[in-house]
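Q: Could you write out the predicted structure for this multi-component system? I'm mainly interested in how the pieces pack against one another.
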Amino acid sequence: MDFTLWTDASMTALQPINLLYLFLGTVFGLFIGALPGLGPLFGVSLMLPVTFYMEPVTAIIFLIAIHCACAYGDSWASILLNTPGGVGTVATGWDGYQLAVQGRSGYALGISAMSSLIGGLLGWIGLILLSPPLTKLALSMGPAEYSMTGLLALSLLSLAAAGETIKGMILGGLGLMISFVGQDPISGTSRFTFGSLYIEDGFRTVSVVLGLFAAAEALAMAQKSGKIAEIRKVTGQLTEGLLEVLRRPASVIRSGIAGILLGVMPALGLSTANIVAYLVEKRSSNEPEKFGKGHPAGVIAPEVAKNACVVGDLIPTFTLGIPGSSTTAILMAALMIHGVQIGPSMFQPGGIGYTVYAGVLLAQFAFFLLGLLSIRWVMRVVTIPYSILVPMILGLSFIGAYSDRNRLSDVIVTIAFGAVGYVLKKYGWPPACLVLGLVLGQIIESNFSRALLIGGGDYLVFLKRPISLTLFALTVLFLLSPYIGPLYRKLVTRQAEPLKNAG
Amino acid sequence: MTRPERFWTLERALLILSIVVSGYMWYAAQSYVLTARRFPQLVSAIVFALSVYLLVVQVIAWQRGPATDNEESKEADKGPVLHWGIGLLLSLGFLVCTYLFGIGTGLLAFVTLCSKMLGLRWPGAIIYGAVFSVMLWFFFGVLLTIPLPEGALVHLF
């Protein structure tokens, strides 16, 4: 480990401008997190255009601060309102809300704050320890492996799409298809543009993301009237909750490891980590019958895992250039917009890798301190009426899309994808798959084509290299896994039937 | 008495759009060089097949399934709401207004109308529209120095 690089990186991260944006990002993230249903994906998407005019390091620290604070603030809505603040806090509400009902919401919020901090710190340690070997692995990977890793990420996200694997696959494919519009990365041939100069460069990720996650969310909110919710008063000892976490090191370590491992898996994000950690904790507990009735470990486990996963998601993103989740796919897009080469070169002298890591560490303390100080005030955001919130989100999305290239045509794309996103949301399709397909499109396609060029056009090139073959086998296995189980059960029943009849 | 579910839902329209787009992409890719067409054709063929499969599954389920309530009528809120179609029309109106009169006017009109339709009274909606537009103009136009659209008509005067 090069300490000079670390010292320089820490000094850069601690520059006043970076600290200012760290503060602003954390405050914004806490507000967005406190709003039910609006998670890190929404917060990061909405603020992406604001970063165009920042230095790359400042931009990424700002977005990471939003990501971490949003993920933490999401738990407030789960605990106080029994409505998940985002997909990553579903399990938090199972015991957190029960504690709030018992008049111990302060205690539950204390647990959530300390667990999130420790989870984030464990994730950060994982980031530091796992980055060097993964960076080495990235250097040994060729085009075939890269394209297969991208496909594996897409298949994992489709699989995680809550029983909607086929819908996830269709959307992932459509995302890839959107990325094909414009120039071919190998030959430079202009494709699927209908001769229009506007789409010669392809669709802008910013416009698509703002439409799918911000405008679509606003259109869905516009179907409701009044305000989001009533505030539940924070009662009970916050400090007691903070100390409770320290009394349960086994739960913390178990959930932290689960969070990091799920974070490292490309495309598996917060929602999986939160629920898996809860179920693991329940299974290993001496009093599983108390889970769901306000057990402190039922809040500790999902919260530690969630924040460990938030940071763990950054490991494949920064080392392999494959996003750990849909939110980190947007972070990756932000880095690409700033011209930062993602992968091992980020950690060479002069790269921004270590500075970003220092920023990630600062973001953990920022959301913890600001969150504890501001919770009673920030939760008032849920009393904002929809008549104020909806035009605000739409207005910000439009001007954000415009500011990408100063073109109104980008706003048209945002509006169109807003309509598509609304339909997807209404029918339970996972739009994150589309974004991942779009962000990964060029990486997968360019490596796919390069691998075929190296292999002389033979598709077996993907099966001849051991890592590539393993990744391909895993992709197929993951995609078929929802169907293998029922098929096997059907076969077993069919075989057992004649025996039963004979008996 | 329940109202039967309609066959044509937005989801099925989306599936048909997916079939058309992937089919077109597969066909159009034939005219490109090998490196530019190989992967797009592979992906569009998979998306086409999956979309057709899902549509067929849905059609069969619809034919066999019992009649259900219309989802939209179930979700209807009693207070002032904005139908998503009207929201989209307002958004397109914002575009036209911004193109002709500049972003300040576009935002003012859009935010005011949108918040009025969602239940704010006229004075409140106008004040909110004005304050929000000025704030956005200040942040993006002045602080971030983004050249915001002034409107095509401004050059006529």
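A: Regarding packing and overall arrangement: Chain B touches chain A through 67 residues (CB under 8 Å).
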